[in-house]
Write a structure and sequence with these properties.
transmembrane helix; alpha+beta; 11 helices; transmembrane; 421 residues; Palmitoyltrfase_DHHC; binds zinc ion; two-stranded antiparallel ribbon
């Protein structure tokens, strides 16, 4: 277990995060020590005490986010009642079914309980078990960096205005550089991590993960053109209840991460049925393309023109190499780019994702079949793409499930409220 945690930490994300924590902490302590030695105010300085507490909490919650992990769905997991598998998606990598709120993470190569997102800074997913620790880590980092920014800027102001009679030991150029760098990092953490913290708090209050937000947005978009009722989050049971599902003094979440309390009128599979219906629609939208010009897999494909170069998809998803004659199943459309999966590649080899899928310039391929809604209308395409982004989290479904959804993909949606008219 300890080795696994060590392995997780030995990646660029956690190492950079730890280096930033270390730099800010040591520089803030250096400035505090200056102040303490010169003023003789001792360790009772409130900003010093507060910084030490939040610096310790940041490190504690960071390590626990990695150590605890998000919680994994057991391999070959099946629902207790076998008849319920028709409401679930299969995971070809874990050889089982995905429990409600679980998703397969391609980076962790496991199905994650209540998956929120994969965070490169902890080199792990944020999910059922570490959601509390992760949120506490963000909160402590933001508060700690607010205090360190105050201490460091205060020290710099004293240095600038009292150059001749600077009361502390005059700093070397290296120390000055490190203090200025630390101020930059501290402000950066307050802004960037503060925004992430805002989204996490919003997600906790709604009891709705980042992935579920996409599913719900898509669910309501599907209904926007029909008289169907609005789809509501089945896991939201009031803000206080929702908060208690994640936030507690010991940062551990209640429940087993598989069975969830649901709102009145919903059942365990309300959301998974909607996911299956969306999957079914995605499959209907997919179109086959033939590659007529080689795609290099480059993030900056200069040879495909200025417009393609200047309008890349804003995502870290891979860009794929394609040869002339390759067939690609396209599921997402941008103005100058397409997202698709190369046909004829075995999806799973030795439990690993072997699929060749990603973005490539639109000019490289021609459609073999027309999409009914295929046009260059930016707004329409943008919306399709935004909604389709959620699907990237969902791994391949089995043909048997496909059949079950094709018969009646939406009939079982039980929790609805009347759409405002
Ligand atoms: Zn899986
Ligand atoms: Zn992951």
């Amino acid at each position: 277990m300890c080795f696994a945690v060590f392995k997780r930490i030995c990646s660029w994300g956690p190492l950079v995060a730890l280096a930033i924590i270390k730099l800010i902490t040591s520089m803030t302590l250096h400035c505090c020590r200056n102040k303490l030695v010169s003023n003789g105010i001792g360790v009772t300085d409130p900003s010093f005490i507060a910084f030490m507490i939040f610096s310790g909490l940041t490190l504690y919650h960071f390590i626990n986010s990695v150590y605890e992990g998000p919680g994994y769905l057991p391999y070959k997991w099946m629902p207790e009642n076998f008849n319920d598998v028709k409401y679930l998606q299969a995971c070809n990598f874990c050889n089982g079914y995905k429990a409600p709120r679980s998703h397969h993470c391609r980076r962790c190569n496991r199905c994650i309980l209540k998956m929120d997102h994969h965070c490169p800074w902890i080199n792990n997913c944020v999910g059922h078990k570490n959601h509390g620790y992760f949120t506490a880590f963000l909160a402590s980092a933001v508060v700690g960096c607010c205090i360190s920014t105050y201490i460091l800027i205060n020290w710099m102001i004293t240095l600038l205005y009292m150059r001749q009679t600077f009361p502390y030991q005059f700093p070397s150029v290296l120390v000055l550089f490190l203090v200025i760098t630390s101020i930059g990092f501290s402000i950066g953490v307050v802004v960037a991590v503060g925004m992430l913290l805002y989204f996490q708090i919003s997600s906790i209050v709604k009891n709705q993960t980042g992935i579920e937000s996409w599913i719900l947005e898509k669910a309501n978009y599907r209904r926007s053109t029909t008289a169907e009722e609005i789809f509501v989050n089945p896991y939201s049971k009031g803000w206080l209840f929702n908060i208690k599902q994640v936030v507690s003094w010991h940062c551990t979440a209640p429940g087993n991460g598989i069975d969830w309390p649901v709102a009145e009128g919903c059942d365990q599979y309300t959301l998974t049925r909607e996911q299956l219906a969306q999957k079914y629609e995605k499959r209907k939208r997919a179109r086959k393309y033939r590659v007529i010009k080689k795609a290099t897999g480059s993030w900056c494909p200069i040879s495909h023109g200025f417009k393609t170069l200047c309008s890349p998809p804003i995502t870290d998803e891979t860009r794929i190499k394609l040869d002339v004659g390759d067939l690609v199943i396209v599921t997402r459309w941008r103005n100058k780019w397409l997202f698709g999966e190369k046909e004829g590649v075995k999806a799973v080899v030795d439990g690993k994702d072997n699929r060749v899928r990603g973005w490539f310039p639109r000019a490289c391929a021609i459609p073999l079949t027309e999409r009914p809604e295929d046009n260059d209308n930016d707004a329409s395409n943008m919306h399709n793409c935004a909604l389709d982004d959620e699907v990237k989290y969902l791994s391949q479904n089995t043909s048997s499930l496909s059949k079950s959804t094709e018969t009646d993909p939406v009939s079982n949606h039980s929790k609805k409220r009347k759409k405002d008219k």
